[in-house]
Design a protein that fits this description.
Radius of gyration: 23 Å
Number of helices: 10
Largest sheet: none
Shape: elongated
Helix content: over 70%
Order of helices and strands: HHHHHHHHHH
Distance between the termini: 98 Å
Structural class: mainly alpha
């Protein structure tokens, strides 16, 4: 008699289940962003986040093991979206600074994200805050990226008289943060994107036209004609 052994394979998770899981995670992150933006990280609870999604707290913990992990995921998601608009790693300083203005314009459509950033960055000045290391690192990397952009502009002779790359980097970050707070208090008092555009123009001569922009051709033909 021949013995046959039957191996039972674990059923593969259906593609629909993955999509459902991804959708649920995104819903949790959106709810967490709202909760943390409204009351800060310390006051916001996992229970409140779960209630907004319509699941139990245990169900939320299935996706994110603890509150710190949830916060990290929210911040990571925000940074991923920001990097798509601001190519800070680019060797083209003009593209990077155009991205700053584009991101500021986009942020005006998602005030909850701006609220979260402002609330958490203030809370995170406390060394024991879970996001303290994140914001310390984020400011360091952002300063370094802006310093690189303005240094390149300086090497091109495009910085305004008396402006240094380091000062320009610090001023741009400080202005951006300050404008966001004022805007959250009164949405009609300032257009952050326009204000940043003006600030950058005061610091350096930046090419605001996107590569291939028809206005480049027009400007070029006008110069040739002159």
């Amino acid at each position: 008699m021949t013995n046959t052994t039957t191996t039972t394979k674990a059923p593969r998770r259906a593609r629909g289940e993955y999509a459902k899981t991804r959708k649920r995670r995104e819903a949790i992150l959106d709810a967490a962003l709202e909760v943390f933006a409204e009351g800060g990280y310390r006051s916001g609870s996992l229970r409140e986040v779960a209630q907004r999604v319509g699941i139990s707290e245990a169900g939320l913990l299935h996706h994110f093991p603890n509150k710190v992990a949830l916060l990290e995921a929210v911040l990571s998601r925000r940074d991923d979206r920001s990097r798509e608009m601001v190519p800070l790693d680019s060797d083209d300083p003009h593209a990077a600074l155009r991205g700053v203005v584009a991101l500021a314009a986009y942020n005006a459509t998602v005030p909850g994200v701006v609220e979260l950033y402002c609330t958490l960055s203030a809370e995170a000045t406390a060394p024991d805050h879970p996001a303290h290391a994140y914001f310390t690192r984020r400011y360091e990397t952002t300063r370094a990226a802006f310093l690189k952009s303005f240094s390149t502009l300086g090497s091109q002779g495009r910085l305004r008289p008396g402006v240094t790359p380091r000062r320009a980097a610090i001023v741009l970050i400080a202005l951006w943060d300050g404008l966001q707070v004022q805007w959250l208090l009164d949405r009609d008092i300032v257009d952050i994107a326009d204000a940043l555009h003006e600030c950058i123009d005061a610091l350096a001569d930046v090419d605001w036209a996107e590569p291939g922009d028809p206005s480049d051709a027009v400007a070029g033909s006008d110069e040739d004609a002159g």
